[in-house]
Amino acid sequence: MDHRTLRGVALAAALALMPVAALACGSPEQKTHVGQVTGVDKKAGSFTIFDVQTASPITFVSDKALLEGLENVGGMVQVKYEHDGDALRAIDIRY
Question: Which domains does the chain have, with CATH numbers?
């Protein structure tokens, strides 16, 4: 395979995979963020992740049931949320 063909294949693969990367945190309509848990505040009923798409921390409010065991998660989490005034309320956490 010559270098132009290889470059074309690489470009096509990159373009094909871009939508998958964009969905990592989803569109505003999907209301999903993905990231690493950086803190859990059970007293305040909140937790923070370092979001992979925005490369910044995002804090969510949550009920106590969703917070259980969250501080022990070692990998990435996917958070589905809804707007609650100015806050983001976690409605589902997958890890």
Answer: 24-94 (2.40.50.320)
